Amino acid sequence: MSFSYAKNCLQRFCVDEFQMNTETSNGFFSNDLLPSLGARINYATKLRKFIVSPFNPRYRCWEMFLVVLVIYSAWISPFEFAFLSYNEEDALFIIDHIVNCFFAIDIFLTFFVAYLHRESYLLVDEPKKIAIRYLSSWFIFDVCSTVPFQSLILLFTDHKESGGVGFKLLSMLRLWRLRRVSALFARLEKDIRFNYFWTRCTKLISVTLFAVHCAGCFNYMIADRYPDPRKTWIGAVNPDFKKESVGDRYITSLYWSIVTMTTTGYGDLHAENSREMLFDIFYMLFNLGLTSYIIGNMTNLVVHWTSRTRNFRDTVKAAQEFAKRNQLPPRVQDQVLSHICLKFRTEALKQDETLNGLPKAIRTSIAHHLFFPIVQNVRLFQGVSPNLLFQLVPEMEAEYFPPKQDVILQNEAPTDLYIIVSGAVELIAQIEGLEQTIGKAVAGDLFGEIGVLCGRPQPFAVRTTEISQILRLSRTALMNILRANPEDERIVMNNLLLNLQGFGGFGYVDHQTNGGPDIKRHHDTALTSIDINNLEARVKKQEGDDVQEINKSMNNLSLNLENKRELNEQKVELIGPDEKGTKSCQLNPEVPCCSKSCSTNSSGSKVTKSTNKRVTIHMQKKESLHHQFGKLIIVPDSLEELFRVAGQRFGGYNFKRAVNAEDAEIDEIDVIRDGDHLFFLNMNA
């Protein structure tokens, strides 16, 4: 796919901001209609039988053909009204009837064209609703603009050239069809294949020429039907103007109209009677508004343009230059342009601005309403508590991805988990240097869970096959919520294990134990195997760690209670152990002894300690404290006593150095804090 092809594809995304005032919605979005938040299906591709999508390419061609007929009707209607009399043998009479037949067909076809709902932006394909909407809006005007008033003129005027003014005036209802031209220009202004400045200028010039054409025709009609032809604006200069050819009279009328519009003044052609003066007054007042409209638009084009469309076009141009300068592959170029166009499209919905401006509680309620039914049906979260789902849903962000867009890349760092709301993706793996599709995922499925939960690079790439809405959940938020819910964490890990076993392994191969990915087939779907034993061991280890954490918490709680009880007891005298290792307790005659930690030193003297510090001693320092089976002691009065007590506790070692958990060496007994972990270094090792 070339870069120029990608440019041509941009027209499908550069659409008008859903102009809902007509049954003809603007845009080149084709079948890639943007789904709503939380949509279960893609409404753009599934319509009822005999219902036509307004974005169908064939229907777009039909609309373009009708625009050409509208331009013809806009010119011929005022011209016939002023200069021609109807005759059944005229070629224009036959052409008008053929044009009316095409618009009659379009009226019938409109009853089978789906429309975008004004509030939900979803396609409505129910025939009854389509008919009610059309009948209550533009049906009457479309019928009136299609009625063959030319035939009625011939029927009721008996071919009299001077009659039928009323029917001719009704035939001017064909100008109602000009609304299609307005919709066309609105689409062209968003199409980057056309220069915005010249598109806008073409629109202004077309409006000006149409006003000049209509004013010239109407002013000539007034002169043609005035009783005294010599007292008219054209008869005063040429009394026999009716004998002139139709072309000469039409050119003279255009000349008067342009002179009046440009306010160059009246010289040879000016109003001669009250009718013409009254028409000139209204025409000049209209010119004031038209001139203001043209000047305002030209100022906007020269100074401001239109900021949003201009920024979009500048972004696209910058992306094109960036791609050429860096020689990006065509596929990457297509993805960049598609992302920019889809971002431009979604900005018109202003979903992010609306949600971000709301309080957190309201955003949570909206997210719960939109995405909770989707998340609770995801296989990874089957069996977890509603509390976990309620915490997960507000952390998810909805993103849109255009077709053929990479969501994650193979071997990418695991940062996010994704859930498909609408659309579909394909799973792609690099096998022997070639991309191979190893599976597909549709709405309700998730991907990226293997890399996030197993802590490994993503085992495969994921690429959209159609426009998709995907929920993104960051790995950090997911792991924090799972750690706060240990029971649900075990369920999630077990679900992952069961899913991998059920699919014969779906994810990643440990490249340290296997030379490469082992592609297996399960139900006609190629899936990449993963080391199931490692995952089972991880689940079991997680359960063991949870039990150990609970036991540790209970031990800490009991120690804290014991410390608090001892601090509330009266002061006791501590006597160190004697040489023979025997323990005895000498009581202070004034203080009763209630502690079993009393002993005597070698000299039999009493040593008093003002506070009781409890520390945990270890033989050596290792990487983790969870696997160290330390001994809880009360800190003696000197380092020598501490080293001797520690040596006796660990079987007669001669310790001379000790460090704390921060690798700081203990030089004084006073720096030891209550509850510290001390690590004694064996000098004999």
From TrEMBL:
Q: How does it assemble?
A: The potassium channel is composed of a homo- or heterotetrameric complex of pore-forming subunits.
Q: What is this protein called?
A: Potassium channel
Does the keyword Transport belong to this entry? yes
The UniProt record lists the KHA domain at 614-685
| A Pfam family annotated for this UniProt entry | Ion_trans
Q: How does it sit in the membrane?
A: Multi-pass membrane protein
Keywords, sorted A to Z: Ion channel, Ion transport, Membrane, Potassium, Potassium channel, Potassium transport, Transmembrane, Transmembrane helix, Transport, Voltage-gated channel
Fetch the PROSITE patterns from UniProt: CNMP_BINDING_3 (PS50042), KHA (PS51490)
| Record flagged with keyword Transport | yes
Q: According to its record, what is known about the domains?
A: The KHA domain (rich in hydrophobic and acidic residues) present in the C-terminal part is likely to be important for tetramerization. The segment S4 is probably the voltage-sensor and is characterized by a series of positively charged amino acids. The pore-forming region H5 is enclosed by the transmembrane segments S5 and S6 in the Shaker-type (1P/6TM) and contains the GYGD signature motif which seems to be involved in potassium selectivity.
**What sequence ranges are listed for the domain Cyclic nucleotide-binding?**
380-499
Q: Where is this protein localized, as stated in its record?
A: Membrane
Family membership noted in the UniProt record = Belongs to the potassium channel family. Plant (TC 1.A.1.4) subfamily.
Any stretches that span the bilayer, and where are they?
A: 64-86, 92-116, 137-157, 204-222, 281-303
Q: Name one GO cellular component term.
A: monoatomic ion channel complex
- State the PANTHER family in the record: POTASSIUM CHANNEL AKT1, POTASSIUM CHANNEL KAT2
- Highest taxon, organism lineage: Eukaryota
